[in-house]
Write a structure and sequence with these properties.
By secondary structure, this protein is an alpha/beta fold. It has one domain: Peptidoglycan recognition protein-like (Lysozyme-like, 3-Layer(aba) Sandwich), CATH 3.40.80.10. The protein is built from seven helices and eight strands. The strands form two sheets. A six-stranded mixed sheet has the order 1-5-4-7-3-8, with helices on both faces. Helix 6 packs across helix 7 (about 205-210). The relative contact order is 0.19. Mean pLDDT is about 85; it is low at about 5-50.
Amino acid sequence: MSSAPRPPHVRTPRTPSRRGLLRGGMALGIAATTGLVSASPALAHPGRAAAPADNPGAEWIPAAAANFTVADRPAEYPVEYVVIHVTQEVYADAIAIFQDPAKEVSIHYLVRSADGHIAQTVHEKDVAWHAGNWDYNTRSIGIEHEGFVDDPAWFTDAMYRSSAAATAAVCDAYGIPKDRQHIIGHSEVPEATHTDPGPNWDWARYIDLVNGR
């Protein structure tokens, strides 16, 4: 999870570490699990009506409006990549971060470890702030995965399969080749300062699943 460079006319945000950013949302994450933080679109997007998720299997839990850029993709920007992330935190805390307008970070999809449940926090037509590189943000869909790069136990079969199905749907929608040149890790984004998804992410298995093998 990364604060992302914004367009030149927008103030450049602070760039805290991923772990520090997410730890800062711990209290909000705990509140989210007890119903104290609302997933209401009215809360996250004042004045905007609720909108369904682009992926029919995803739960719509909108990010704060301050944490992404409204756009009209692919008309405004072509969508050419899927960027794979690992949260370095648990699911509830990551959701809380995306809903906190002070955090200046967002993602299109977040996949839960235990059961592969998917939340969508930013519509695909809009630009999520996830890659730490404005050009790549405009041209990609970001998918976060609950877990930690140094603990492969978080990368469950349910997570791989659910995420791969979501990535395949994105690739089909935008004509993105289902290969490692277009489905990349956060660490592979130019000027990236993050290491996710890390050496424990099984790329061969993932690409096979994306391709239905």
